[in-house]
Amino acid sequence: MSVEVALSLPVLLLVMFACVEFGRLNMLRITAENACYEGARRAAVPGSTSDEAESVAQSILNVASARNATITVTPAAINDSTREVTVLVEIPLAANAWVTPKFTGTKTLARSCTLSRERFMP
Q: Which residue of 18, 24, 42, 77 has the smallest Cβ count within 10 Å?
């Protein structure tokens, strides 16, 4: 009996920790997509700024405890003539993986969303 446990327990633990890690990375992927969309949605509204879009995206990333994320809003200065806004969120996996930071290395999870701005037509 102890031989079977000694042989099967490491495999069982490996599978269990892999499920937890892939679940965490999938949660980060979904959170990054949501942060991009909500940031772009905020920037698409008339009178908004790129700082507001970045703040909204960061607040969503904070819920998932995403560390060292980079948020880029393009264009940096949003004005009335801006037609589209793009929000890019990059999350380094090495800083956010729980079990396997050694295996994710320098990989980065990147998601972006581009929305047309809402504008008042005179």
A: 77
Q: How would DSSP label each residue in 33-46? A: HHHHHHHHHHHHST
| Residue 38: CATH number of its domain | 3.30.1300
The predicted-structure confidence for 21-79, as pLDDT tens digits, reads as follows 888 889 999 999 999 999 999 999 988 999 999 999 999 999 999 999 999 999 999 98
pTM comes to 0.85
Q: In which domain, by residue range, is 70 found?
A: 2-116
At 60, list the tokens: 């969503």
Q: Is residue 95 part of a domain?
A: yes
| Residues paired with 109 in a beta bridge | 91
Domains identified in the chain, total number: 1
Task: Say if residue 33 is exposed, middle or buried (CB neighbours under 10 Å; 0-12, 13-18, 19+).
Answer: middle
